[in-house]
Amino acid sequence: MLSNRTTKLLTIGLLVAAGTLIAETKKDLHFNVGPKAGVSIINPYGSISVKPSPGNTVVVNAVLRSDKVEIDNTQTGNRVDIQSHLLSGADPDSGRVDYVVYVPADASVTLHCSTGSLEAEKLHGDVTLEGAGAAVDVHDVSDAHVHVKTMNGAVTLDNIQNGHVEVDSVSGDVTMRSVTGPLIQVVSTSGKINYIGDFGSSGEYRLTSHSGDIDAVIPEWTSADVSARSVRGEVHDDIPLQPKSHTWFSMDKGRAFAGTVGRVAVSSTVVLRTFSGRIHLRKRPEKQQ
Amino acid sequence: MNCVELQQSLAEVEDASTEEQRSHLRTCPVCSALVKELNLIVSAAVDLRCADEPSPRVWNSIEAALRREGLIRPSRTSLIPSFSSRWGALAWLVPAVATLLLCFAIYLRHTSPITETARQTFVSTPAVNAADLNDEDLLQEIADNSPAVKTQFEENLRQVNQSIRDAQSWVDESPNDAEARRLLMDAYQQKSMLFDLAMDRSLP
To answer: CA of A151 to nearest chain B CA: how many angstroms apart?
Structure first.
């Protein structure tokens, strides 16, 4: 048997939970759009997840935490704008809205969110994700520009093919797995940068962190022209590189290395730079290949 | 006159009108492009300064139309008006600082691909003080409008300012090192991004 006190606590808990559920509302929006539509979502508190829709429709499934927030939406031609509109007295909890949005795979998507998470998957239109504290996850995207700006949110990019990728993060860690394309550029102030993949076949890969470590793990078949340099930190190279006959910066031992791995003819250019972080170029273990 | 001498001489004769300058520009496409861009920036800046301010009626009409369409609401405090009201007539400083940062970035981009000879002898270093970019105003703005994230902005701003100082010291130490300049440019871009994020419409 439950004691009186436990029963009271359980009752209060149930009432609070019920109150939350009652206040929480769902809102669904549908928009018909043409090819290469533009979709923009601004959400101060909460998450945004964007997935491909089968047809030329934009479907917005939103869960609003309370009546202190409402959703403004407009469609102008082929462009859809969604914005969470905080009403008086809204706070991070009551102003929270979680979105799951289905867009045509070729749509250009722009997401803004200050906290929470931003996620985009299986798209081949341009993707722009910005948010001071937002955690960003982009995966299974091809033939697209992917631009990410965060202050301290972690950034994860997975399976991005033929991408034009630009990531700027002040202190959030950036992790990339199987990310290839003509331009892959990451700039961070103190965040760590992890790259796991083969650097594609003819792109430019520039990974820079001022004080964060840079780790690149590459498979055996990688072809790349690699240069790494840490001004005050260390560099480690576990892979035999064919040294270059000429480099325009001094190759201080333990602070820089440069050379070619694999076939020169199909190699990408890889530039790893840090001021005080550590750079490590490693071969991926066989079992992960 | 070589590339380095020309770029140094531009500090004194900005329009590259001396015979020596003209003679070098005729044979050097890199410097010619640089001078063309500088002239473009100078002329654009003059146009901006001379642009007529529309009458208040125009702004009022636009505001009324936006309100009618529900695109702006009276209850929401925008960062932009707040900047304007705080700085009054000096509000133009915000885009001016952004323009200066942009010019600085363009300048650095143009100096990196110059010839190896020029790179070896190019010694001028940009002297921009990170502390002059109105950090306090930015933090005050965040404190007023998004106090929950003020500490995070403060810490990240501190890190970015430190990175600018580090990169600047490296440029001072190794003025011929293009990577040092690139790192400095990246550090400034990070700071510019922080300002950008602080003005982000998604901030509550």
So the answer is: 7
**Residue-number span of the structural domain to which B13 is assigned:** 3-48
SS3 A5: helix
The residue in chain B having the minimum alpha-carbon distance to the alpha carbon of residue A227 is: B179
Q: Which residue in chain B has the smallest CA separation from A171? A: B156
The per-residue pLDDT for range B176-187, each reduced to its tens digit, is 888 889 999 999
B110/B186 same-domain check: yes
Which segment of A271-280, B58-67, B152-161 scores lowest on mean pLDDT? B58-67
> Where residue B97 falls among pLDDT bands split at 50, 70, 90?
low
Task: Establish, for the pair of chains A and B, how many residue pairs have beta carbons separated by less than 8 Å.
Answer: 111
Where do runs of H (alpha helix) occur along B28-177? 29-50, 56-68, 79-87, 93-111, 116-121, 135-145, 150-173
CB contacts, 8 Å: A42 with chain B: 201-202
| Shared domain check, B82 and B38 | no
Query: Do B143 and B178 fall into the same domain?
Result: yes
User: Is A42's CB within 8 Å of B202's CB?
Assistant: yes
Whether residue B54 lies inside any domain: the answer is: no
CB contact under 8 A, B193 and A44: no
Q: Is residue B57 part of a domain?
A: no
* Residues 6 or more apart whose Cβ sits within 8 Å of residue A63: A24, A25, A26, A27, A97, A98
> Average pLDDT, whole number, for chain A?
90
**Lowest mean pLDDT segment, chosen from A80-89, A182-191, B5-14, B177-186:** B5-14
Whole-number percent of chain B with pLDDT over 70: 53
**The whole model's pTM is what?**
0.70
Could B159 and A171 be called an inter-chain contact, meaning their C-beta atoms sit closer than 8 Å? yes
DSSP state of A221: T
Give this complex's ipTM. Answer: 0.82
Residue B64 is predicted with a pLDDT of: 67
Residues of A in contact with B116 (CB under 8 A): 248
